[in-house]
Target: Acyl-CoA dehydrogenase family protein
Amino acid sequence: MSRIELSLNPSPRAVAIADRVESFVRDVVVPYERDPRRDHHGAPLDELVYEMREHARAAGVLTPHILADGSHMTQRETALVLIKSGLSPLGPLACNTMAPDEGNMYLLGHKATEEQKDHFLKPLVEGRARSAFFMTEPSDDNGAGSDPSMMLTTCRQDGNHWVINGRKTFITGADGASVGIVMAKAEDGGACMFLVDLPDPAIRIDDVPNTIDSSMPGSHATVTIDNLRVPASQMLGEPGDGFKYAQVRLSPARLSHCMRWLGCCIRAHEIASDYACRRMAFGKALIEHEGVGFMLAENLIDIKQAELMIDWCAGVLDTGSLGTTESSMAKVAVSEALMRIADRCVQVMGGTGVTDKTIVEQVFREVRAFRIYDGPTEVHKWSLAKKVRRDWREAQA
Amino acid sequence: MSRIELSLNPSPRAVAIADRVESFVRDVVVPYERDPRRDHHGAPLDELVYEMREHARAAGVLTPHILADGSHMTQRETALVLIKSGLSPLGPLACNTMAPDEGNMYLLGHKATEEQKDHFLKPLVEGRARSAFFMTEPSDDNGAGSDPSMMLTTCRQDGNHWVINGRKTFITGADGASVGIVMAKAEDGGACMFLVDLPDPAIRIDDVPNTIDSSMPGSHATVTIDNLRVPASQMLGEPGDGFKYAQVRLSPARLSHCMRWLGCCIRAHEIASDYACRRMAFGKALIEHEGVGFMLAENLIDIKQAELMIDWCAGVLDTGSLGTTESSMAKVAVSEALMRIADRCVQVMGGTGVTDKTIVEQVFREVRAFRIYDGPTEVHKWSLAKKVRRDWREAQA
Amino acid sequence: MSRIELSLNPSPRAVAIADRVESFVRDVVVPYERDPRRDHHGAPLDELVYEMREHARAAGVLTPHILADGSHMTQRETALVLIKSGLSPLGPLACNTMAPDEGNMYLLGHKATEEQKDHFLKPLVEGRARSAFFMTEPSDDNGAGSDPSMMLTTCRQDGNHWVINGRKTFITGADGASVGIVMAKAEDGGACMFLVDLPDPAIRIDDVPNTIDSSMPGSHATVTIDNLRVPASQMLGEPGDGFKYAQVRLSPARLSHCMRWLGCCIRAHEIASDYACRRMAFGKALIEHEGVGFMLAENLIDIKQAELMIDWCAGVLDTGSLGTTESSMAKVAVSEALMRIADRCVQVMGGTGVTDKTIVEQVFREVRAFRIYDGPTEVHKWSLAKKVRRDWREAQA
Amino acid sequence: MSRIELSLNPSPRAVAIADRVESFVRDVVVPYERDPRRDHHGAPLDELVYEMREHARAAGVLTPHILADGSHMTQRETALVLIKSGLSPLGPLACNTMAPDEGNMYLLGHKATEEQKDHFLKPLVEGRARSAFFMTEPSDDNGAGSDPSMMLTTCRQDGNHWVINGRKTFITGADGASVGIVMAKAEDGGACMFLVDLPDPAIRIDDVPNTIDSSMPGSHATVTIDNLRVPASQMLGEPGDGFKYAQVRLSPARLSHCMRWLGCCIRAHEIASDYACRRMAFGKALIEHEGVGFMLAENLIDIKQAELMIDWCAGVLDTGSLGTTESSMAKVAVSEALMRIADRCVQVMGGTGVTDKTIVEQVFREVRAFRIYDGPTEVHKWSLAKKVRRDWREAQA
Model:
């Protein structure tokens, strides 16, 4: 099987780590893809996750994007490492570079107090716990959906505690998480974030629906928060700054999805290319049929473009910019490109492509979901159109 | 919820039956969509299927496209009825209009002897049995795949019997079927078809893979046929005519998939439209956002075009033509249109669209598989291109 | 060269006329495609048009869709005839089935008084004059554009006359027309339509811009109407009914564009197919390259779908319906399909495709413009989305 | 009007020059866009070109990508400068960065002897002459087209001269050029390149067809070469190395088209954005309609991706690689992206978009042609598919 070479070269340090991650994922994680330990949604069981992490720890590739001193690699370095960790759908779980933990660690690394880091961040970085980010609200309540201004969950101060009430949905990994970050609106309309030990009886898991994707332990729960009491010391940062912190987490988390799923699509492309080169149809190798070969050619181009968009957006984030526009552009471009790639891989492989004999079928399903989470394509285009208008107005002034 | 009206009007008889089928599916079958009786591939259990068929029998909509005298409706009539039966993914199972039974009944109705009909066809028409069509071969053997000329399964005469050996794959419904139609190549290179009672120890189910779709009982098995002995009286038609009979079944079966899945996509569109009309985002109903409303507008167009292509192709078949070119055109156009429709429905519904809270998520997965079975898009384009060339040559002559 | 066969068969009468039209266009009109008589916008000179019409008259194919008694063929009959007349970009001019005359004749045939018909309609039907429809207004005035409610042109009654003032743009054929239909808003906000002899000094042609298309004599003028006085007897129908009459003309006129340009695209496809079958590249005929053959296969499908949409929409109009929704659906589907067809034809022919050595290059340019006139794609999708919402609301009630 | 900012930052030197070029093009060249001096194909007359070059010389932006010592900027530097020169379709002519001169100067700069440079290259660099590259052959002869191995033009040695015979087509700028580079096949099958003073009676211009594009002086001629005698000293490099030299020119020339047309599409996007922000429809600014705003959002993404692909490919060329694969990827990705951008700009501007009131209409036509020249999309995909297969084979070994 021939491997896709990336052009990314952010630093010797990152290249060295990324190489180790790639070897680990290809040699150690890939065989786990056939491991049957999954829950009834198809998501990997924690038992499987923690077993793989033992190997990652031994191989020196656990949480590879966070350095020994607790600082994070640059985003451009992270890109290279996370793409490589994504070469298997299990790779990010094995290496502890998976959402939502990766984004949560990023946020806590930047905004938590030392005490909060000790208690909430340390077990995450060590790969011994999972976390969840409680922001999205159910659409049947006319709650937030893709529109955060519609947040209905409330928090009110009661002595030295805050009391939180509301409903949250699509809370990835809530079922089984030890660490929660909960967002709520205070009486003055400002948003607050709280760190919570999980499970907590005041956060009731109402439903964990079956979804088209199946890579995330705990799947995507809907929960009711019913008079959850949190000590004031567990507020993250300052009251009223919740949306600001969500922004800090937003672009890097969005971009890290692009990285991991690009890795998966690269692998799917390798599998489909291998299939097309081996399998004969109508008297010649499948790939010699232009109808098939052109799809693989288009994959090469889409992979490269996804890689370049990620690297560019990561570079913008590395300047200290929030990168809201840039990460919207990258999210749309990359998620749509990955959908095309995954779809072509399925098509190239014909009947085999729709079975779970390879990861191609799963990658297709995962990427379909990715086009919706962290903002559906349409929401990003909407905010990009607003930016075009804003720039025009400023140029008029 | 607003319903899509079709323009099809092939005959008063068909309209009346289609109306009954529609009411039955919407009122009786749709509630079964939440019935948990599924196998571990997600496919409906036979128990569930036969329970629904009792209702269909009572409602006079069981096997509605085959008339009391055993004759079939015209293809244009069938189209209207099968689209309506498809308004739920369970509808064709409940009404006994599902693949592969529908195509197998068609073939037996046209080519079987009276004795064969009595034994093999009757229980199918009465909705008391399932069947399977053993044609496709595994690609890892470099077997037939999409290319029937590569068939490796053999049959040789031995006294008053035929002995069949080979491997078959993607045999929908083989697991649990009572009736099999097996295709094999004789020593002289001619293809033969045989009718077989199932299960038979000489047909060993090696594997039933998980696949992206989950609507077909028995899923898609890979089997080994090991010295299967079949009495000569169970050969369908004449030796050497196997490919010809496959052709007879081919276009109608291909087209009937288009019909059923169009039904499903119409329903998915109704669900997505309802969602978009109810749900608010950024201060107005989702559908008032052009980004959403345009997707639903595009669905209207794609639905209409799918309907017209099906009706046109059905009309060609009704003239007695094999309709190979026309059914290739229809299959490509309809399956690709349905993919766009299903994809838009998922996207319109955002997070809800990727859960199994509605059938939209399943329809998306089913249609993805449909783009491959009964000939992937690329194989049909290939044969259409050949036709362009053939026509050109004839015009030169 | 191989010809595309249509499935349309609306009536023996129409088939017979369409056959005559097809022979005429292929045999007599096609050679005129190399005739150099064009204006500096590339549009055919009237001299050329009237010469071709002499041949059409002789061949009995002049204004073939209007019967001897002045009545019009049904829309389904018209479809077949107009598609055939469109097999050359010059065909509709030669046969007098071209926009805007065809739509104007339709409107006058349905709404004009006998006196008005005698004076304004007769020379049009006889192919001795051209006409123009003055509705669209310039966007730099923030006039009507695609939004008729923004109409700024006014008419006010002055004794037995009306006085009209305003500016109009993209008035196809105004330069050189003998008959004008002018739309304006009365003081009470109602819209009126007037018939006008042209040229008239009160209608000043300000500008005839170069445009990407070049099939319409007189091109698309911007005019100023400066105190144009029209006798009250030249009002079409009743005051205030202008928008209603525009609706009468709207759907058939929109659909007739689909018909003519489908004809052109069929011819472009025949040319490209012929090229691909003759020309060798990399050791085989171009069409044997799937990259090329698939494009021609996709053309076959798009042509069929365009044909079916036109026939369906025409059938709706033939029931007496205004067909606003249906003609929006048809216009979007057909114009976008024709763009894909024309684009593929250019691409298949490589360098030759971008020269004027064949009509393919012109057809590509014409179809690009067609995606905008008679309502850009986006305006139609917008009104289709409104319809989805309206239907939903009615179903709620 | 708001300007698109690029992310490219190859060197301070290039940024400074690019800024000067941008100011020059926007301030001095853009007003020339309405200058009527065009030939009957719509291409700018040399008189107009040379007048603009006087201004460019004065502004220090003539041939800005070639340094005072005759060396070329790096490709990444060139990219930034050429994109800026492309902000007007006339910009590359004014700045002397236009095809085919730019590619010809590149080839001569790398492969010509000092004597050849003095005679043939110097006037080009000084912007006093135009050149042409005689490679492509007519398809009606079954000549080279996109397939160079089919070259039919011959050269044979005759004493101290070579004698060349053949036909060439799509020879951009041949009409009016002073310098020609002619490719031909020697008797031993090796390809040779020759430098020729033009015009020469032995190179007869048979035809200069009208084409869809109109930016290149001299358009695209078909010529007959009839016993052209060239002194051996005018051979470029070594006999038999013609294809090798064509390769040297190929990737940079292909990429420089991407650069210039990206510049044009950026400008078209600025014009369309400005239009959409100013113009009202249905009660709000056009851009506030998502149907329009989303198109501009998609443009932002496509522009960024085109920019990144160009920069990446330029970087590969700067390592000394031939960049055949990379420039194929870039050519496909960029030309297809630019087509989408140009098409959206036309659509956003409605009726105005299809007139020559802005450059948008021309840009659309130019980009259509660009998808064919320097290798149609399909030829590049074909060679990319071959590379996938080659890589796979090597990985097997």
